[in-house]
Design brief:
The protein contains 2 helices and 5 strands. By secondary structure, the chain is of the alpha+beta class. It has a domain of 60 residues: SH3 type barrels (Roll). A 5-stranded antiparallel sheet has the order 4-3-2-1-5. The longest helix is centred in the N-terminal third of the chain and has 42 residues. The radius of gyration is 28 Å and the shape is elongated. 11% of the residues are buried. It comes from Melanocharis versteri (Fan-tailed berrypecker).
Amino acid sequence: RGKDEKYKVWMPKLRMAKEYKDKRKSTDDVERNIFKFKKGSEEKSKKMEKEEKVFRETFMYQKEIRVLARATAERSVPSRRHADLPLTAGEQLDVIDAAQPHAVICRNAQGRYGYVLVEHLNFR
């Protein structure tokens, strides 16, 4: 025996259960998917900024965009004008401004803005 082998400490080799290895692999996959999600959210935020810019130009809206309330669309309504927001039943909307007594400016989940009649909304 050499000098190095004399002082070497023997340690048992720990074995991992196969189920644990599979779980660890799946968590690694999830972490990789998180990075893909970030890329998509960046694209979505750029799209939202573009929609906001179009909204400000179309409606000549100079105030800060704040959500006053949340509302749900009661029924599907197609848009008749460029300034109207098309609705689908059950869609969640952010109310931005009450510009007229019978219509409000809303934003949908895709970031589009437009007028919506109050009679089509459910405030709860």
